[in-house]
Each structure stands twice: as C-alpha cells, then as structure tokens.
Amino acid sequence: DVKKSGRGALRLFDAGMSAYAREALVIDGALRGAIAASELRLVYQPIVDARTGRMDKVEALLRWQSATLGHVGPDRFIPVAEDSGLVIDLGAWVLAEACRQLGAWRDQLPHLAVSINVSARQLLDPAFLLLVEQALAAHGLAPQRLELELTERVLIGNGEQVRAALGRLRELGVSISLDDFGTGYSSLSYLTQFEINTLKIDRSFVTGMVDSPRSHALVATIVAMGQSLGLQLVAEGVETAGQADALDAMGCHYLQGYHISRPVAAADLLRFAAQRRESNR
Ligand code: C2E
Ligand code: MG
Ligand code: MG
Ligand code: MG
User: Taken in order 219, 221, 226, 228, is the CA torsion positive or negative?
Assistant: First the structure.
C-alpha cells in the first residue's frame, strides 16, 4: 500500500481505511484539479449596519461544483484541504478572486469591504503577507477594505507565530476578525494577546436568543464586552426580524444572516445593493 501525501503522489485505497479517510481521498483528488477546471466560485453574503441597514461589508464564501462529485459544501472540503495543505492554493485563489471582484465593483460599490476566511496553514505560510499585498495592489484597493476571518482554533497552538503574522497584517492596514466567537476554545485572553478588530458572534448563540433568556444574556454580555474593548461586533446567522431587533437594541453594530440575505452570486449582490439604496431597509 502506498500512501504518500503531497502533489502528484500515488495513492491507493487501503481496505482498513475509515469511511472518512476514504471520502477525504476522493475529495482531495477531485479538488486538486478544481482551480484549473474553473470549478470554484465565490458567493457573497451582505453584512449590514444594524441601525441603517447599509451594506458596509460582504463575506466571501467558497463554492465548489465538482465535475465528478457535484456540489460539495465548504464544510466538507475545507477540512480535507487543510489536512493536505491544498488550502494554501485554494486560499490564494479566494484572496485573488475576492480582490478582483472588489476591483470590478469600483464604480458601483466603491466603499465596500470584503472579508475572507483564512485557515491556520495559510496564515502561517511565509508567503501569505506578500500575497495579500500583491492582491490589494493589483486592484488598487486600500488595505482597510480587506478583512481576514480567523477562528479561535487558528490562534491556539501557534501563539507566537500567529501574533507576529497578525501584527504584520495589521501594520499593512488589513482588519482581523474572530469568526464563530464563543464556540470551541474560547479564551478571553485572545482578545488582549492578538490584534483583533472584530468579533463575529456565532450563529448558535443568535439562534436561541429570542426564546432562551440564557442565550440572550450571553449575546448581550459578548456585545457589552466587545464594546468596552473597542471591538466591532457582527452577529452571524440572523434569521428573524426578532433577532435583528434584539441585536440592534443591545448595540450590536452589524448583522449577517438569511434574514438580511443568503450568500449570493456577484451579479445578485449588485441587485441587493440597489434595492437597499432605494428602500433603505
Ligand atoms: P463561516 O465563515 O462561519 O461562514 C458562515 C456560514 O454560515 C456560511 O456557510 C453561510 O452560508 C452560513 N450562514 C450564513 N447566514 C446563515 C443563517 O442565517 N442561517 C444559517 N443556518 N446559516 C447561515 P458556508 O458557506 O457553507 O461556509 C461554511 C464554513 O466553511 C464557513 O463558516 C468557513 O468556516 C468555511 N469556508 C467557507 N469559505 C471558505 C474559504 O474561502 N476559506 C476557508 N478557509 N474557509 C471557508
Ligand atoms: Mg467566516
Ligand atoms: Mg462564522
Ligand atoms: Mg461558522
């Protein structure tokens, strides 16, 4: 049995492999050609000011329509790409494509910021900072218009390296946002150790906040803490008007979720922006 990782390596199935490992091999194999075959695209989900409804930001989310596997969601293929290292290439493509799109929107959406999801391996890749600089410069974008979303998982384990990488990115003027805040390895010491601009309150807390007093109290506490630390707050997974109103009342700055819009193709985002300008909420 030959099992080698890396590009172009020979891989044979092993009868003793777990179902996950077998699925991962299939996904990894198909994903290797995905960029060249133009099977990847980005969709954009609006992030709006809770007060005014203005779309200040969008989150770019990766989509993969595989010729052999059909549609595969990022929750299935990103972990595989993280394990194999392919996420570095995928991430570079996402960065370049999001910046290209922002450049293409310069007339219609001149102030829009885009946020992209970044994996640990990408952030710790020595070439990453230069890639970010190049992507911004290639499309004449101010660094303030790019935000990088990291999860708490990225911060643990590589503290010193991560701190150095974030410091250089912040020096460049790029914003850093802590994604899915409150899940997993929450440690409040991250908030003082790392240069973070934004907290994204995880969907799981937002989902329960209208019916569960405890979820409501938890979200209110995160908002109050974030405010006192001078952080921007984004609520993820806002699905109802009731949640949006409660978050606004707490002083949460930004809302993201199906109640505002699903992630949409680039052309549809322009339509969304035009509608917003007319109705203003
Ligand atoms: P995330 O960064 O937390 O992205 C938010 C996810 O929640 C997205 O799922 C989005 O479609 C979904 N969502 C947004 N609003 C709502 C809502 O109101 N209700 C519900 N139920 N869901 C909502 P998606 O696009 O499937 O992405 C899943 C995860 O995959 C992302 O979580 C992110 O961790 C990862 N991912 C996506 N694109 C990339 C990428 O380009 N690079 C990396 N490294 N990871 C990515
Ligand atoms: Mg995210
Ligand atoms: Mg998130
Ligand atoms: Mg998430």
Answer: positive
Determine which residue's CA is closest to atom 12 belonging to ligand 1.
Answer: 237
Indicate whether residue 94 lines ligand 1 (CB < 6 A): yes
What is the model's pTM? Answer: 0.93
SS (H, E, C) 158-217: CHHHHHHHHHHHHHHCCEEEEEEECCCCCCCCHHHHCCCCEEEECHHHHHHCCCCHHHHH
Distance between CA atoms of residues 276 and 270, nearest Å: 10
Residue 34: which region, alpha, beta or left (left: phi > 0; alpha: psi -120 to 50)?
alpha
Question: Helix-strand-coil percent breakdown of the chain, rounded to 5?
Answer: 45, 20, 35
Q: Tell whether the torsion through CA atoms of 93, 116, 150 and 183 is positive or negative.
A: negative
Q: What does the alpha-carbon distance between residue 239 and residue 219 come to, in Å, rounded to a whole number?
A: 15
Distance 16 CA to ligand 3 centre (A): 35
Of 81-85, 182-186, 247-251, 270-274, minimum mean pLDDT range: 182-186
CA gyration radius for the chain? 19
Regarding the beta carbon of 133 and ligand 1, being less than 6 Å apart is answered no
Give pLDDT tens digits for 136-183.
Answer: 999 999 999 999 999 988 888 778 899 999 999 999 999 999 999 988
Nearest ligand (C-alpha, residue 237): 1
Residue 82 CA, closest ligand 1 atom number: 44
Q: Distance (Å, rounded) from C-alpha 104 to C-alpha 277?
A: 19
Closest by CA to 202, choosing from 182, 231, 220, 177, is: 182
